[in-house]
Amino acid sequence: MDKFVVRxxxxxxxxxxxxxxxxxALPCMAAAILTEDEVILENIPQVNDIETExxxxxSMGAEVELGYGRAQHRTRIKCAIxxxxxxxxxxxxxxxxxxxxxxxxxxxxxxxxxAMPGGCAIGGRPIDLHINGxxxxxxxxxxxxxxxxxxxxxxxxxxxVFDKITVTGTEDLLMAATLAEGESVFxxxxxxxxxxxxxxxxxxxxxxxxxxGTGTIRxxxxxxxxxxxxxxxxxRIEAGTFLIAGAITGGDLNVDCCEPKHLGALITKLEQCxxxxxxxxxxxxxxxxxxxxxxxxxxxxxxxxxxxxQAQYMALATxxxxxxxxxxxxxxxxxxxxxxxxxxxxxxxISGRTATVRGKTPLQSAAVMCSDLRASASLVLAxxxxxxxxxxxxxxxxxxxxxxxxxxxxxxxxxxxxxxDVFGRK
Length: 426
Prior knowledge:
Layout: E1 3-7, E2 13-17, H1 22-31, E3 38-42, H2 48-59, E4 63-66, E5 74-78, E6 86-87, H3 89-92, H4 102-109, E7 111-115, H5 128-136, E8 140-144, E9 147-151, E10 159-161, H6 167-178, E11 183-187, H7 193-204, E12 208-210, E13 216-220, E14 228-231, H8 236-248, E15 252-256, H9 264-272, E16 276-279, E17 283-287, E18 297-298, H10 310-317, E19 322-327, H11 338-343, E20 347-351, E21 354-359, E22 367-369, H12 373-385, E23 389-393, H13 396-399, H14 405-410, E24 415-419
Parallel strand pairs: 2-15, 3-14, 6-7, 10-11, 18-19, 22-23
Antiparallel strand pairs: 1-23, 1-24, 3-5, 4-5, 7-9, 8-9, 11-13, 12-13, 15-17, 16-17, 19-21, 20-21
Helix pairs in contact: 1-2, 1-7, 4-6, 5-6, 6-7, 8-10, 8-12, 10-12
């Protein structure tokens, strides 16, 4: 099992490039189920969740080619025949996005059998929002032995108001509605860039969609979709992680190949912390503005402060003068990194969904355990400023969503190396 060894103390200097967004790529790969034709996706990140999705689609009978060489960030998917419309547990148990194939499978084949989602243990992602929506569109859904089975001759358009904002729920039902009979209107939709990215692909495939990126989406169902070529958005969470890496180390870091307009909430908060920010068309430069200052955050749905940046921001808060309050509104169990930060010398207390971080505290090297994808990133950030050599165990969590993370950081001056060679790199 791979580990990271990180020696702190180096400011990050130079340019670091952002990969494509895993959370856009996964639903876009699932969307290929909706057509018999070939779908080509570019800017696909080389992360473990993408490989899991490839295995999933292949197990259903699809042809999936992940690029190599010059085309290493491109994938070709052709779902001409879906001989086995089942998302098997042994494939999806490590990935939360398994529910994203439910909608397109039933829309395309009339039947879907999908294992309940797995992934990191940061809290529930209620599948009932998917189920209620598909039932409103005419599907019959049963559950047994850890699987959901959905059936429908053809889905019908429906007016659905989501009880709570759900990214995967919005994406799943959006895909299902493209092949439904009649018009669908969804309200209280997620507005995340990943939803807009998926909608752009679906429109390129021939879907009729209006309002993606707003709270209300209208879809006029069509009888058939065709193939398309689409480029995946840059990963805003990876970009945000690198911005904090530059800020926490007091460096001068240019985060390139990103979409600054997707980073508004984080950029505003970093400026409140005293960080100097220069925003370009496709890059953001972060520079030290002197001592970091404490600032509070509350995680919210987009365009608010993202829950996927909460752990990384908390690492930054340990190095800011004053007291920062971190309120987690999205997931009920997303403070699992706190005890590991405390092991490194952080002064953090938790009460319910609120964490209070008192800084500035010197961090010390320690052996720490990664519990989920974003917690892993926060511990790396803390290790970059800790005294001594920190060892991070279970970094497979990080490999699910960050492409060549340690290599990118080494390229801008971090002292970080991988112990073990499970993935063919050191």
